[in-house]
Amino acid sequence: MHRNKSLALAASAVAGSLVLAACGSGGPSSGGGKISDDKVVLGLLNDQSGVYKDLSGPNSKVAIQMAVDDYKAKYGDKAVAKNIEIITADHQNKPDIANTKAQEMYDRQKADIILDVPTSSAALAVATQAKAKKKLFIDIGAGTTALTGAQCNKYTFHWAYDTGMLAAGTGGALVADGGKNWSIVYPDYAFGQDMTKSFSAAVEKAGGTVQQKIATPFPNDNFATFITKAGSTNPDVVGIMAAGGDLINFVKQYNQAGMADKARLAVGLMFITDIHSLGVEAFKNTVFTDAWYWNFDDQNRAWADKFKEKTNTRPSFAHAGNYSAAFNYLEAVQAAGTDDADAVVKQLEGKKINDVFLRNGEVRAADHNVTHDVYQVKVKSKDQVKEEWDYEEVLKTVPASEAYAPPSPDCKM
Amino acid sequence: MSAQLEQRVDVELPTEPSAVGRRPVVRWAMLVVGLIVTLALPWFVYPPVAMDIAAWALFAISVDLLLGYTGLLSFGHAAFWGTSAYTTGLIAINSGLPFPVAILGGAVVAMLLAVPIGYLSVRRTGIYFAMVTLAFAQMIYFIANQWRSVTGGENGLQGIPKNLGGLTDLVNSDSFYFYYAALPIILIGVFIAWRTVNSPFGRVLVAIRDNPARARALGYDVERYKIMAFVLSAGLAGLAGGVFAVSHGFASLQELIWTTSGKVVLITVLGGIGTLWGPVLGAALVVSLEDQLASSGFNGTGIITGAIFVVIVLAFRHGIWGTARNGINAWLRKRRQGARSD
């Protein structure tokens, strides 16, 4: 018995000293130099294997690499960020994985910024981490207005598009074109809920009515029952708020069910990669809002040509958005002379930008939403398509002030 | 698979304490080594991963309490882990109480939930028990999915704070400190499990597992004992789930989905059921393997863990710890016999 006691004592002594030692050494180290860890680490967190792989995915790394190359070419020896590293991770569109990965990227891999993050629920999780870790997060792939609304924070920026902008462009235009009665089918997570809210508001504002709002699981393969239900009220327009692989599945099944002749299809969010994988016929005459189109003008086309050399495909707006966000982040680091998050945020806030992606762009200081001109486009018919990826006809340019709602009162920095 | 499940879970818990267990010196030495490894873990492993290992270890121990010591295979333990994760999160977000209090609240709610579920399911054994618990867990999952105003639905419950009175800033500054702040909760859970197993109550559970008819004939109310074990196990799963949620600052539907129930059973069987040390080992193995594979950019984590599982089940039926312990015992016995014949 004696022996046991002494052993227990020894154990607790060892344990105690370990705890004490731990308190001394394990703390976070604050960077001494201007560039933390002597390098700027850009973290790309997106869907590398699932339904959103094509619209952003691994090719966004190529886009970010192009931004890094352009930054280095522009500043040469004067570049503040000499070592720039790009790391990637797959969040599988799940908020819990995104949450853990973001934490790891900031802490373990010393990422100075996280880019992209499609899937709104995942984006909100990363925004929470960015706020906690006081590191930058520029979202490109997700659409929810909550990022610049109730859940906005100092370190989170929303670069390319949001659901309000998509609804203002597409919803209003279709009602004016005679599509009064709507059925909306949406994936049941932050993005879908947000899209439905924005579209309902836009449709009703233009004088239409939304008869049904049908929630589907996300991700989902079989939409047959939802399509039947959507058609049951004989709507003029069926609005689908899914994106990426889910959108492709839905449209395929929608056409197979013969719905295309009965009701007009409105797509809430579409990437050019979606049109490419189904072909223009499936989307005949579909009107939607695009944040950027590669064949819009010479500047876009020149960048798209460079992108094609490296990837053998044309860029979606998410690819161009990642390029623009990464490049402007590096510009802000250059201007601030450091990669310290607070200094970089100060550089970005209120900045007016015109680049290959942003036209009349402004990083709004009030809510960190990046507003810019967007485009109302129509999918071309087969005989109008002159070359591969030439799928969109720009109907009109929607100026930034019309496309984006003013900063939300919910946002308190 | 189903034929096997219908049979009584076949573990040999030695009728006399094993040589490893009988020698207090060995036992204490093991405990000390275990404690040192636990305390030193975040120095070698990324601290949030270390926290995950600890939480999953307690979760697996809670399953082992049912599977290894009572002979009940619950395939719905995610219900308690997840319910506690959400409850802990809601308490921490809305009240600002220190996180250990929130976790305790989560565990209590998990135990309350376990009373009706246990009452309705312990009347069945084997595959039927597994299916009934799975059905209840799925119900909880869908309730959480639809009850969006409270749980956040698909978005999950975000921004769970790590409050701890005056230490809040320290705990928040680095997950390294949080590990030491939350570890006592896990250790208390493990201690409760250990006390239970090594008590008269635990002996009755083993008796029920091995021969329910005889236990009943001896005057034990078998159903009541099973419900008590079930509720206790749910409480431990709840403690683990609460720690997990606070560590991640996040509770999502992933915590309630049936694959989580499957994963914890896998960890338990991998480590060795009816051993308490086994689940800990299993959790360390599976969680760190998943972490390694995920950060190496390999997508087929399931293939690797699945393959290991198949090998363990086929070749080492008592799990990693069970096999190792039996091996050591056999070796010790041989040596002792050798010494005696000299």
UniProtKB/TrEMBL annotation, chain A:
Residues 40-382 form the Leucine-binding protein domain. PROSITE patterns: PROKAR_LIPOPROTEIN. InterPro entries: BCAA_transport (IPR051010), Leu-bd (IPR028081), Peripla_BP_I (IPR028082). Residues 1-21 form the signal peptide. Gene3D superfamilies: 3.40.50.2300. Keywords: Signal. It comes from the Bacteria. Belongs to the leucine-binding protein family. This is ABC transporter substrate-binding protein.
Automatic annotation (TrEMBL), chain B:
Keywords: Cell membrane, Membrane, Transmembrane, Transmembrane helix. It comes from the Bacteria. One of its GO terms (cellular component) is plasma membrane. InterPro entries: ABC_transp_permease, LivM-like. Pfam families: BPD_transp_2 (PF02653). GO terms for molecular function: branched-chain amino acid transmembrane transporter activity. The chain crosses the membrane at residues 25-46, 53-79, 99-120, 127-144, 176-194, 227-252, 264-286, 298-316. It is found in: Cell membrane. It is a multi-pass membrane protein. Its main location: membrane. This is Branched-chain amino acid ABC transporter permease. It comes from Knoellia koreensis. The lineage of its organism: Bacteria, Bacillati, Actinomycetota, Actinomycetes, Micrococcales.
